[in-house]
Write a structure and sequence with these properties.
It contains six helices and five strands. With 123 residues, the protein is of the alpha+beta class. The strands form two sheets. It has a three-stranded antiparallel beta sheet. It starts with a strand and ends in a 9-residue tail after the last helix.
């Protein structure tokens, strides 16, 4: 991705090597950039987690939002969903090998975020 904009002698600008939709960064962000997606994957890194436990781990996210993200992640092959035949029925979610490939850069993102100045806002 070496996109650039050059100006000709008449002041007109032309873009070269443009990022065609979706470029690699955009594609990755569409998959992993949804709100709560990274947090869900991160909380599944140590093993299967029940839905209610996961919703407790992710403060600030509604159960509906977590459920939507889990469905997306399952469709994308990043997690698996297992219904446990217990009374009452419980559901466990687990990260797949494909999902584990995201943990490296999520950890780097965590480190970067922890190194940011205190006053930097997130809104």
């Amino acid at each position: 991705m070496d996109a650039r904009v050059e100006e000709d002698g008449k002041g007109r600008r032309q873009a070269y090597n443009v990022c065609l939709e979706p470029c690699a960064i955009e594609r990755g962000m569409r998959i992993i950039g949804g709100k709560w997606t990274g947090s869900i994957l991160w909380h599944l890194k140590d093993g299967p987690v029940r839905f209610n436990d996961l919703s407790r781990m992710i403060g600030g996210a509604s159960k509906k939002m977590i459920s939507e993200r889990l469905r997306q992640l399952e469709t994308q092959g990043l997690i698996t969903r297992t219904v446990m035949e217990t009374a009452p029925v419980s559901v466990h979610y687990e990260i797949t090998e494909l999902g584990r490939t995201a943990l490296g850069f999520l950890d780097e993102l965590r480190k970067w975020s922890e190194s940011l100045p205190e006053g930097l806002t997130t809104s």
